[in-house]
């Protein structure tokens, strides 16, 4: 997955801490999802769509699907970067990720998450996002805004 031209990209540098590595001295596979989350949180902050901002609309947006493809290991002390960008936004939000090992100059992992909107009170699926949220997400993705319904 690649970002569209003009898409907003969050790029968060980090150094692999000792507590993220396993007995083989490489980052335990589950921590890559944590790195995705760090980049996604920064992307949402840059967009102005933090958890608190979405909650003001009476919504929560949990991750309902996650995928990670491991390409090259990160090791204790390596310098890395986690990148996140929106690929699609309609009834769900598809965010792609890339994890880079700047020490070895290799891509360490790539993947995606999908989020849906639920009512914060009932946790029922919300099929239509408020225009303000959808427009913000599509603008950040470099995608055209969707036409409005009605006559």
Task: Tell me the major beta sheet.
Answer: 5 strands, antiparallel
CATH superfamily: Hotdog Thioesterase
Q: H/E element string?
A: EHHEEEEEEH
Number of strands: 7
Q: Indicate the percent of residues in helices.
A: 10-25%
- Which oligomeric form is depicted? single chain
What is the number of helices?
A: 3
Can you tell me the residue ranges where pLDDT is under 50 for at least 5 consecutive residues? none
Class by alpha and beta content:
alpha+beta
List the strand order in the largest sheet: 1-4-5-6-3
By CATH reckoning, the class would read Alpha Beta
How much is the radius of gyration in Å?
17 Å
Overall pLDDT level: 94
Tell me the strand percentage band: 25-35%
State the distance separating the first and last CA atoms: 36 Å
CATH topology: Thiol Ester Dehydrase, Chain A
Compute the number of structural domains: 1
Topology:
Blueprint: E1 10-15, H1 31-47, H2 51-55, E2 59-60, E3 63-70, E4 79-89, E5 92-101, E6 106-116, E7 118-119, H3 131-141
Antiparallel strand pairs: 1-4, 2-7, 3-6, 4-5, 5-6
Explain how this protein is built.
The strands form 2 sheets. A 5-stranded antiparallel sheet has the order 1-4-5-6-3. It has a two-stranded antiparallel ribbon with strand order 2-7. It starts with 9 loop residues before the first strand and ends in a 10-residue tail after the last helix. By secondary structure, the chain is α+β, with helices and mostly antiparallel strands. Helices cover 22% and strands 33% of the residues. A hairpin with a 2-residue loop joins strand 4 and strand 5. It has a single domain, classed as Thiol Ester Dehydrase, Chain A (Roll), CATH 3.10.129. The model has no long low-confidence stretch (mean pLDDT 94). The protein is built from 3 helices and 7 strands. The protein has helices spanning 31-47, 51-55, 131-141; strands at residues 10-15, 59-60, 63-70, 79-89, 92-101, 106-116, 118-119.
